[in-house]
Each structure stands twice: as C-alpha cells, then as structure tokens.
C-alpha cells in the first residue's frame, strides 16, 4: 500500500502512516468505466467524487442549441464530479463522461465528510485541493476573458502536452471556446 497512487497523491500534501492510509483507502471503491460511459449526468443527484487512477474524462454541459461546452478534463491523479451537486445535494448541472476506458476510485459524500471530521489531515488535504482547484478555475476564467485564442491554446499545450495526444481536437476546441476550424489554424 506504500506505493499506491492514491497514497502518493495524498502525501504530496500530508504525510500518512500505513494505518491511516489503510483506513482512508477503506472508504474508497474502485470502478471501471468504458469510453463514452457517464459517471454523472445532468439532472441526477450526485453522491460521489471520483479520483482518476487511469484514463481521461471530461466535465461538460450542453447549451439550448445542443452545443457541448467542456469545463474540465480529468486525467490520472485528478478529481472530478459535479461539485455543486456533490456538495449542495442538488441535481447535476454538468455531465462527466469517459473519453477513454477508465479506472477510478470514488468516495461518497458521507464518507468524505466522515473522514474530514475524524482526521484533521484529510480535512487539510481536501481544503488544499479545493483551494488549488479554485485557483485553477479562476485562472481559466481569466484566460477565457482576456487572452486571445492563440494564447489560451499555447497555455494549454504547455501545461498539459499529453492532453493533445489523448483528446480529439473537437473537444480541445470546445474547452478553449473556439471553433474546430480556429483550432486547426492554431495548430500550424
């Protein structure tokens, strides 16, 4: 269990004993999903937060015209769910879909709350992950509002070069808020 990727991920922020990790890990369930399977769908209640062991997913919504808007990609060591639905116990407003076959761990809302109240370390871990997620979201919004498409493309390519090998260009375009044709011009 010392080398489990979840333990390594948590220990980037907080140290754990073997007993602590065994207890934490006991609150997670492993699941496998195929490409194009949903973990979360708009309109459903969400009781799980997912951690990606292997694979790639997208968090998205569809506007009234049926156009897909991608909010987030999630690859190995990333967390994903509809956070408003998960935390506020309301229906999902976004969907989470597997782009590749995936191996995931999930924790229920109740178990996450239980671990947070029982273990100050895990409360600190999730607080830090929430802060980092908020910062990333703020930077993404600012980039969408102020940066030209070429700059957004270059930032994404620099930050996540492997994403471009794993995700269709149509999805990259949706994430960047540009057309497929614009993305093609940026690739040159």
From TrEMBL:
InterPro entries per record: cNMP-bd_dom (IPR000595), cNMP-bd_dom_sf (IPR018490), RmlC-like_jellyroll (IPR014710)
CDD domains reported for this sequence: CAP_ED
Domain Cyclic nucleotide-binding stretches: 34-115
Any Pfam family hit: cNMP_binding
Name of the protein in its database record: Crp/Fnr family transcriptional regulator
Organism: Rapidithrix thailandica
Lineage summary: Bacteria, Pseudomonadati, Bacteroidota, Cytophagia, Cytophagales
């Amino acid at each position: 269990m010392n080398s489990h990727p979840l333990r390594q991920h948590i220990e980037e922020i907080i140290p754990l004993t073997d007993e602590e990790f065994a207890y934490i890990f006991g609150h997670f369930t492993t699941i496998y999903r195929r490409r194009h399977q949903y973990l979360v769908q708009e309109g459903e209640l969400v009781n799980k937060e997912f951690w990606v062991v292997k694979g790639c997913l997208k968090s998205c919504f569809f506007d009234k015209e049926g156009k897909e808007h991608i909010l987030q990609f999630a690859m190995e060591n990333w967390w994903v769910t509809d956070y408003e639905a998960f935390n506020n116990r309301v229906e999902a407003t976004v969907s989470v879909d597997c782009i590749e076959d995936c191996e995931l761990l999930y924790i229920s809302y109740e178990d996450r709350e239980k671990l947070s109240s029982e273990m100050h370390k895990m409360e600190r871990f999730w607080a830090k992950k929430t802060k980092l997620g908020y910062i990333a979201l703020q930077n993404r919004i600012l980039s969408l509002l102020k940066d030209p498409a070429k700059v957004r493309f270059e930032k994404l390519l620099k930050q996540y070069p492997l994403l471009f090998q794993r995700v269709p260009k149509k999805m990259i375009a949706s994430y960047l808020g540009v057309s497929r044709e614009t993305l093609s011009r940026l690739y040159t």
